């Protein structure tokens, strides 16, 4: 095996930027939903205002990350390309999906060889990017309600033509728990691949290199 440059610098920067943005959004979003520092006697408006401000900044950061990753999927290398997130559209991709499913169900001892994302992970990341976009749109829609005549509401207010504020807020909140679940699975799958396959998965988002055949 040899070291192969898989993840380009922009992909690695966007990966960690999105990670930090999502952590910030989850922490502040949880507090906005449940302001545990506030009481009926002390509303603690400063903490809530700070949480909302940080939440907004992280929302902008995530939006730029999602847009940037989509742009790089159009101009990046084969491992970052848009088509890599749709393995079910090709014969090889569908074969890899079956192979990955067998591996995770202990019916096979090895993953199908792939330096980029395996087929199942690629679909999972596609779903996560869709959910990130959903969170960005619904988040800015709720934020824009402070000024119904403003530009933000003109861009995102259409969300409330589909669902009421309560349903949008509920969907936005519960999607956060999907991110929690993904994070747990992501760490598990990363270490399993790194230990079992010895392909350098764990460090590849720092160095950009994985080990295998091109």
Give a structural overview.
By secondary structure, the protein is mainly alpha-helical. The protein has one domain: Transmembrane di-heme cytochromes, Chain C (Fumarate Reductase Cytochrome B subunit), CATH 1.20.950. It is 68% helix and 4% strand. It is built from 8 helices and 2 strands. It has helices at 9-33, 45-75, 91-104, 119-143, 151-156, 159-162, 165-197, 201-207, and strands at residues 2-5, 209-212. Strands 1-2 form a two-stranded antiparallel ribbon. Helix 1 (9-33) runs antiparallel to helix 2. The termini are close together. The model has no long low-confidence stretch (mean pLDDT 91).
Describe the SSE topology.
Elements: E1 2-5, H1 9-33, H2 45-75, H3 91-104, H4 119-143, H5 151-156, H6 159-162, H7 165-197, H8 201-207, E2 209-212
Antiparallel strand pairs: 1-2
Helix pairs in contact: 1-2, 2-4, 4-7
In short:
This protein is mainly alpha-helical. Helix content is 68%, strand content 4%. The longest helix is centred in the C-terminal third of the chain and has 33 residues, at 165-197.
- Calculate the mean pLDDT score and round it: 91
Number of strands: 2
Would you identify the CATH H-level superfamily? Transmembrane di-heme cytochromes, Chain C
Rg over alpha carbons = 20 Å
Q: Multimeric state of these chains?
A: single chain
**What would you call the structural class?**
mainly alpha
Name its key features.
214 residues, Fumarate Reductase Cytochrome B subunit, two-stranded antiparallel sheet, 8 helices
């Amino acid at each position: 095996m040899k070291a192969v440059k898989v993840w380009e610098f922009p992909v690695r920067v966007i990966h960690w930027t999105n990670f930090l943005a999502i952590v910030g959004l989850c922490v502040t979003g949880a507090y906005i939903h449940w302001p545990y520092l506030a009481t009926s006697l002390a509303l603690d408006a400063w903490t809530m205002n700070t949480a909302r401000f940080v939440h907004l900044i992280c929302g902008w950061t995530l939006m730029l990350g999602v847009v940037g990753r989509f742009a790089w999927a159009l101009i990046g290398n084969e491992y970052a390309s848009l088509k890599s997130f749709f393995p079910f559209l090709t014969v090889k991709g569908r074969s890899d999906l079956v192979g990955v499913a067998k591996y995770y169900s202990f019916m096979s001892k090895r993953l199908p060889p792939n330096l980029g994302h395996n087929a199942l992970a690629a679909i999972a990341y596609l779903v996560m990017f869709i959910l990130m976009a959903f969170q960005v749109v619904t988040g800015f829609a709720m934020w824009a309600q402070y000024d119904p005549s403003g530009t933000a509401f003109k861009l995102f207010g259409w969300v409330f033509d589909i669902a009421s504020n309560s349903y949008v807020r509920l969907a936005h909140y519960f999607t956060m728990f999907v991110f929690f679940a993904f994070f747990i699975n992501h760490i598990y799958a990363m270490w399993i691949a790194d230990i079992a396959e010895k392909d350098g998965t764990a460090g590849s988002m720092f160095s950009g290199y994985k080990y295998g055949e091109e």
